[in-house]
Amino acid sequence: MEARNEELKKIVREGVEEHAQVKTLLSELSELKGTDKVFKAKLQVLMENVEHHVEEEENEMFPLVEDELGEEERVDLAERIEREKARVGGEKPAGRGSTGKKKR
Question: What helix, strand, coil percent values describe the chain, rounded to 5?
Fold first, then answer.
């Protein structure tokens, strides 16, 4: 159990740093024009960082957290995430018990 907690803490620390890097890149990109030579390179790095971060969360962090939380806590957390996504992206939040996945 302690090893799992340490692994989760390590992943969270890395995630916080990755979030900071993304914010920095977004800020730098906002200062550039799409025609600037460095814009495309920074955008590529941003996309790679976000893809890596999402993959790490889904494959490493979320399974560790899922094992630690009860069903009600997981549902509550999912709802909070959906509300935040809606707040940031302007989308309507999913209803109670939703997996947060979009229907195709």
Answer: 75, 0, 25
